[in-house]
Amino acid sequence: MINSRFNNKNILITGAGTGMGKAAALRLATEGAQLALIGRSEEPLQQVVSEVESLGTHAISLPCDITDTAALSNAIQLILKSFGRLDGVFANAGTLGEFCPVSDTALSQLDSLIDTNLKGTLATIQQSLPLMDTGAIVINASWTASAVMPGAGAYAATKGALLSLMKTLAVEKGQQNIRVNAVSPGIILTPMASEVLAPELSRKLADHTALKRNGTPSDVSGTIAWLLSDDAAFVTGQEIIIDGGYTIGGVRL
């Protein structure tokens, strides 16, 4: 292990089978965390469990769709039985939906995005809080909540709502010493992003980024680990944009 910031700490990660969820799980495992991993598909979760345990710590796989409140409740009860408590949550699970102009967005599509990105995230946090005496929650928002990606308006709306939720929770739970923050990743090359980013568009986006590249899940995992750790003990109610300078804008020389 790199160090022991998370020894004797139990962390829940949703959307843990791939992308940023998986990267966060592996990063936290190198620092000693025990992990409860929620995702829709069992096979990728089991692969992450194997990788986590090869790093010398313990993880449990909890196949679950966060939009199914009964299944989510069962998963939380299994966490309670296995670990007894939670010290942190990375509420990462989300969906992009179909890219289209706001004027053409079907209300049914918006409902689907709200069900997963907003209601599913809120349900995850609500059901996790009784297992937390103290600790930290990190919500995965998006750079699109404060900038513009044409075609992603409905998705961005749900992520903007999460930022408002995060700030309110930070105030409401501050006296309990539960910190609540958000990360807003930029263009991160996850399996979900690859479904909508053609290679040519991906190159254009990288060219507009100050660091001249798109991000990877490991570019995000270190910030997540910091926010969940005691190193960020006086940080709450904050959004951290992890985008390689993409949203700075301006002319690139």
UniProtKB/TrEMBL annotation:
Keywords: Oxidoreductase. Pfam families: adh_short_C2. It comes from the Bacteria. Coiled coil: none annotated. One of its GO terms (molecular function) is oxidoreductase activity. Belongs to the short-chain dehydrogenases/reductases (SDR) family. This is SDR family oxidoreductase. The lineage of its organism: Bacteria, Pseudomonadati, Pseudomonadota, Gammaproteobacteria, Oceanospirillales.
